From TrEMBL:
This is Succinylglutamate desuccinylase/aspartoacylase family protein. It comes from Amycolatopsis rubida. Residues 43-145 form the Succinylglutamate desuccinylase/Aspartoacylase catalytic domain. Pfam families: AstE_AspA_cat. Its cofactor is Zn(2+). Keywords: Hydrolase, Metal-binding, Zinc. It comes from the Bacteria. InterPro entries: AstE_AspA_cat, N-alpha-Ac-DABA_deacetylase. PANTHER family: BLL3975 PROTEIN.
Length: 339
C-alpha cells in the first residue's frame, strides 16, 4: 500500500525526499522543512524521528542523514519518517530557538497545532500531519561535552499503559541509561520547567509512544553513530528490521533512575567537574568545584542524592557557552537511583 501525507504519496519499497512549506519570511521567502520517508515493502509501525528540534543540536541531524541513507526499503517493515532539521528557523541561525518569536520547539507546538500562530507554532502546525501519521516517535537532542548519552521517558504523560510499555521498550532497546522524567520533588535541585511540553511527552499523551534522546556533541558530531545504532535497535524491537537489538556499551547504568533536577553553584567562577559524567555517585560526593581567579575553591557542589550527572552545562546551557558561571547558575543534570 502507498504511504500518503497530504499530497505526498510514497509507493511501497521506496524512498521519497520532500520539503514541507511552513513559514513565509517578511521578504516573501518561504521556509520549508526537509523530510525523508522510507516506506518499506511490508506493513508495520510508522516511526517518526526528529533532529535539530533545538537548532544548535546537530548530532541527531547527522544521525538521521546516516540512518536514512543506509536503510533499504525493500527489507523494511513499516515506515520511517525522518526530519533532520525540525526547526530550520533556528538551525539556519545557529540558534537554540527561533529568532522570530524567541520560542524553541521543546515547548508545546504540535498539540494544539496553530497554523495562524507565531513562526515557531507554524512550524509545529506544518509538522503535525507527520505526528498524526506516526505510531511511534523519537526526538534526537544532544548535550555538549562533558556529557554522556541518555534517554528520557515521560511515563507520567502516557495516555495508556500500552503506550507506557511501548515507551519503555523503546528506551530499553535504544540502549542508553534511561531516566523517568518527573518534576523534582524537593528543593535540593532546580527545576527545568514543565515536562509535558516536550514533544516526546506530548506525543505520548496523544497515544504515540515517544522517547527523547540526548546524544553528545563532539563538535564534529561524532556521537551520531550511537544515535543511528539506537534508532535501528528501536526499529528491530518494533519488528521493522530483522537485525537483532545490539547492546550499546556507552555508559549504561544498572537500576531505575528518576530525574532529580539541576544542580546549581552558589558562588560565581569557573565550574570544574571533578567526576566523569555518567559515573554512579553516592549522596554527598563532590561533583563540581567552583574556582575563583586566585585558583581557590569557592564552592563545592555535592550530590544531593545517589545517582548520576549526565551533563555538565555550559553557561547558559541553551547556547554553546563556556563553563564560566554565575552563582545560582545550573551546573549539572542529575538523576536519582531508585532503591
Ligand atoms: Zn535539545
Amino acid at each position: 500500500m502507498n504511504f500518503t501525507i497530504d499530497t505526498i504519496t510514497v509507493p511501497p519499497a521506496s524512498v521519497r525526499h520532500f520539503r514541507l512549506p511552513a513559514v513565509a519570511l517578511p521578504s516573501g521567502a518561504g521556509v520549508e522543512i526537509p523530510v525523508t520517508v522510507v516506506h518499506g515493502a511490508e506493513p508495520g509501525p510508522v516511526l517518526l524521528v526528529t533532529g535539530a528540534t533545538h537548532g544548535i543540536e546537530l548530532v541527531g541531524t547527522r544521525a538521521l542523514l546516516s540512518l536514512v541513507s543506509a536503510l533499504d526499503p525493500r527489507t523494511l517493515a513499516g515506515t520511517v519518517i525522518s526530519v533532520p532539521v525540525t526547526n530550520p528557523l533556528a538551525f539556519d541561525q545557529s540558534s537554540y530557538g527561533s529568532p522570530q518569536d524567541g520560542m524553541h520547539m521543546g515547548l508545546p507546538c504540535y498539540w494544539p497545532a496553530s497554523p495562524e500562530g507565531s513562526a515557531t507554532r507554524r512550524l509545529g502546525a506544518a509538522l503535525r500531519p507527520l505526528f498524526d501519521a506516526a505510531t511511534h516517535y523519537i526526538d534526537l537532542h544532544n548535550n555538549v561535552e562533558p556529557a554522556v548519552p541518555m534517554s528520557m521517558r515521560f511515563e507520567d504523560s502516557c495516555s495508556s499503559e500500552s503506550v507506557r510499555q511501548q515507551q519503555r521498550l523503546m528506551a530499553d532497546s535504544f540502549g542508553f541509561t534511561s531516566v523517568r522524567m518527573t518534576e523534582p520533588d524537593d528543593d535540593t535541585a532546580q527545576m527545568v520547567g514543565r515536562m509535558d511540553g516536550h514533544p516526546a511527552a506530548a506525543a505520548s499523551a496523544h497515544g504515540k509512544p515517544g522517547l527523547m534522546v540526548e546524544l553528545v556533541d563532539t563538535r564534529g558530531y561524532l556521537g551520531h553513530d550511537l544515535g543511528v545504532a539506537g534508532v535501528r535497535n528501536v526499529m528491530s524491537a518494533l519488528g521493522m528490521l530483522t537485525d537483532p537489538v545490539t547492546p550499546q556499551d556507552a555508559h549504561r547504568l544498572d537500576g531505575d533512575f528518576t530525574f532529580h533536577g539541576l544542580l546549581a553553584a552558589s558562588a560565581s567562577g569557573i565550574a570544574m567537574p571533578v567526576r566523569e559524567p555518567g559515573a554512579l555517585l553516592e549522596k554527598g560526593e563532590e561533583v563540581v568545584h567552583i574556582v575563583d581567579m586566585t585558583g581557590a575553591i569557592v564552592d563545592t557542589v555535592r550530590m544531593p542524592i545517589t545517582g548520576f550527572a549526565w551533563a555538565y552545562l555550559a553557561s547558559p546551557h541553551q547556547r554553546n557557552g563556556t563553563m564560566a558561571v554565575n552563582g545560582g547558575h545550573a551546573l549539572a543534570f542529575v538523576a536519582k537511583l531508585e532503591a
